[in-house]
Amino acid sequence: MTAGSLNLHGLMRLKGVEATQRYIINEVLRIYAAQEVRTWLTSTWSLLFARCLVACRIEDAGDSDFVTGDIVSKAAVVNANKQLAAEGKNLISYTQLLLGITKVSIWSDYLAIPLRPSRILLVC
């Protein structure tokens, strides 16, 4: 057992991306509930924290144009791997990253779906 919060990187490594996202959302909602603040739109929180999990680090670029050590969107890597597999080339190996909200917000290619802060939290 732990005292305090879990190490999110360790949780992601051991339990996976979905379990990590679920943990983050539940913790945020628990904090708001402890302060007697009602929140709606849990799906908006899910979308917000899903953005923290869209990046990966290239471990082996295979036959792609990526460079080992690059941090890129997971979607780009998955698409490139599909194309490489179809051509019978070496695939890209990568490590899923967990980015902080601030870092995600300054990387414009992760902001394809705009969020309006006024709709994230409704207080009654």
Largest beta sheet, briefly? 3 strands, antiparallel
On the 0 to 100 scale, the average pLDDT is 76
Principal-axes shape call: elongated
By DSSP (H or I, 4+ residues per run), the number of helices equals: 5
Tally of individual domains? 2
Radius of gyration: 17 Å
* Range of helix content: 40-55%
Low-pLDDT regions:
110-124
Number of strands: 3
Structure description:
By secondary structure, this protein is mainly alpha-helical. It is about 45% helix and about 10% strand. It has five helices and three strands. Mean pLDDT is about 75; it is low at about 110-124.
What would a concise description of this structure say?
This protein has 5 helices and 3 strands, in the order H-H-H-E-E-H-E-H. It is mainly alpha-helical and 124 residues long. The protein has a 3-stranded antiparallel β-sheet with strand order 2-1-3.
Identify the notable features of this structure and list them briefly.
single chain; mainly alpha; 124 residues; disordered C terminus; 44% helix
Helices and strands in order, then pairings?
Layout: H1 8-15, H2 17-34, H3 42-50, E1 55-60, E2 71-73, H4 74-86, E3 93-96, H5 101-106
Antiparallel strand pairs: 1-2, 1-3
